Amino acid sequence: MSNRAFLTPLLLLLAAASLPETRLAVTLPAGWNGDASGRLLLFAEPATAENAKADAVDTAEFGGKDAVSVAARDVASFGAARSATIDTQETAFPAGFASLKPGDYRVQAVLDRNGDYDYGGRGEGDLVSRVVTIRWPQRAASAIALDHAVQAIDPWHASTPEGAARAAAMRPHLHEERLPSVALTRFWGTPHAVTAWVLTPPGYDPRGRATYPTVYTAGGFGTTHARDIGRASRLYDLEAKREIPPMIWVFLDHSEPTGTTEFADSVNNGPWGQALTTEAIPALEARFRMDARPSGRFLTGHSSGGWFALWVMVRYPALFGGSWPTAPDPADFRDFTGIDLTAPNANAYRDPSGRPWPLVRDHGRVVASFEQFARLETVLGHDGGQIRSFDWVFSPRAKDGTPAYMFDRVTGAVDPTVISYWRDHYDVAHRIEAQWPALRHDLDGKLHLTVGTADTFYLDGAARRLEAAFRGVGGRADFTYLPDKTHGDLYERGGDPQALTKDIAWAMYAVARPASKRLVRSRPAPAP
To answer: What whole-number distance in Å separates Cα of residue 442 and Cα of residue 427?
Structure first.
């Protein structure tokens, strides 16, 4: 053997030995019976004095020197050894862990057993480790033990005595409804239902003759049926104090493992719009003392719930008396959080000059780019994230039967065929421009949209395009742009976090009961 032939494998071994160890072993809890599977996630953040006592490491923030890194892999089984190895260099955000600066890191492992981390984070049944400190780069593979399962949270639990009192007062008025859907059951081949909470106002008498205007609302991305109890409690408190008029509120659950359905008929999610309008609403109106006229039905919602309120109004204009969406997801795909998806050679990651498209801002400061958001979502899970959720609602099916990707997750290149389908089927501004003669009679004057000029996700841009579409066809719609308001503080005014809620409620009531006037708290509530 020549010296060269001998030295080559030796040099390779020495080079490999000098590389940092990027693998970690994750084991099942000591008392865990049986096997487990799911998406194994590893979170790491630089150890600092500020976070030393925190009991969790999670992706709460983008960017900055203390950004959280995440690695992931799918685990079908932990095997006889009850252990799974994760290589933090293979699937990771923002980069493989070999690029981490040397130092101490707080590390935590999570086994997402339901595949819904992208939607709601850690939930019931997920296995979680304690936070451990690991010196990086590792000299040898570390081991982390999953320590416990996440327990269910009582949705009725209140963190303050005041909150507990509100919940107790509301509880007799909050009714859980699971409304079987023939349309969804036929689509999926398994029993499906529309789930909702129905909140009746103080003084509601199921045997009385009075009927009440009814508001259908859905929450933003990340909302769940259980979390809607908190929203209902706040609204009931406002009704009890007579700060909003007496109406019935229906909190629709549009959360699915794939994201939010928006109650739009979809080739992927199924006929949710049909289920709502032809099955759920008639069933509820037969069960509760609802004003069953179009002038007594209303829509509202924020963010993804705002898109629901906008879409259902435009799709079924004769059924409702008005819609008050706030900061809705993009209603014009020529401004999809700033990106013109219809442009030739459109790219979701880079603008025509090559600069990153921003997605999240804090007033004038860019917090995260569209690419960062999409890449993190891809690491956290396969489905259920905000961006993938759009594919589930808007996209045609790909050849493998799954929703077609609107853009390539590696390059950011937008698929023009998919976008053409999106625009033809779900672009609200395009629908207004193309179908206004048919829509005008039932839709004109019924839309009232509010968004902040500093919206965190740049959603004011699409709203302005939608307004231009209405103006272009001579349609009437109200668009309000609140100066310097973001996605999170849009409803606050003068120290009142529910100011916009009150404005919207009274505006709806004025449509349903034209003779009514907005009350001050000291005056009695009007008869419904």
So the answer is: 19
Helix 459-472 with 428-443: angle, nearest 10 deg? 50
Radius of gyration of the chain (CA): 26
pLDDT band at residue 378 using 50, 70 and 90 as cut-offs: very high
Quick: pLDDT tens for 161-190: 888 888 888 999 999 999 999 999 999 999
- Convert the pLDDT of each residue in 304-332 to its tens digit: 999 999 999 999 999 999 999 999 999 99
How far apart are the C-alpha atoms of 360 and 372, rounded to whole Å?
10
The answer, yes or no, to whether the previous bond of 528 is cis (omega within 30 of 0) is no
Q: Which residues of 290-325 are buried (b: 16+ CB within 10 A; e: fewer)?
A: bbeebebbbbbbbbbbbbbbbbbbbbbbebbbbbbb
| Amino acid letter for position 384 | G
Strands (E), 281-411: 297-302, 322-326, 358-362, 365-369
Number of Cβ atoms within 10 Å of the Cβ of 524? 7
- CA-to-CA distance for 74 and 222, rounded, in angstroms? 23
Three-state SS across 470-507?
Answer: HHHCCCCCEEEEECCCCCCCCCCECCECCHHHHHHHHH
Q: Give residue 294's region: left, alpha or beta (phi > 0; psi -120 to 50).
A: alpha
Tens-place pLDDT, residues 264-308: 999 999 999 999 999 999 999 999 999 999 999 999 999 999 999
What are the residue ranges of helices labelled H in 92-227? 117-120, 161-170, 182-188
Give the list of residues 6+ apart from residue 472 with CB closer than 8 angstroms, or none.
Answer: 433
CA atoms within 13 A on the CB side of 427: 24
> How far is residue 416's CA from residue 231's CA, in Å, rounded to a whole number?
39
Tell me the residue type at 252: L
Contacts of 124-132 with CB under 8 Å at 24 or more apart are 124/150, 124/151, 124/152, 124/153, 125/149, 125/150, 126/38, 126/150, 127/28, 127/29, 127/32, 127/36, 129/26, 130/55, 131/54, 131/55, 131/56, 131/57, 131/106, 131/107, 132/106, 132/107, 132/108
Task: Give the model's confidence band at 4: pLDDT under 50 very low, under 70 low, under 90 confident, else very high.
Answer: low
Q: What letter represents residue 327's amino acid?
A: A
The C-alpha atoms of residue 109 and residue 86 are separated, in whole angstroms, by: 10
CA-CA distance, 506 to 512, in Å (whole number)?
Answer: 10
Helix axes 370-380, 386-394, angle to 10 degrees: 90
Q: Are strands 103-112 and 92-93 parallel, antiparallel or unpaired?
A: unpaired
CA angle 109, 113, 115 (to 5 degrees): 105
The answer to whether 477 touches 449, Cβ cutoff 8 Å, is: yes
Q: How far apart are CA 236 and CA 40, in angstroms?
A: 41
- Tokens 């100011």 sit at which residue? 499
Is-contact 339 369, C-beta < 8 A?
no
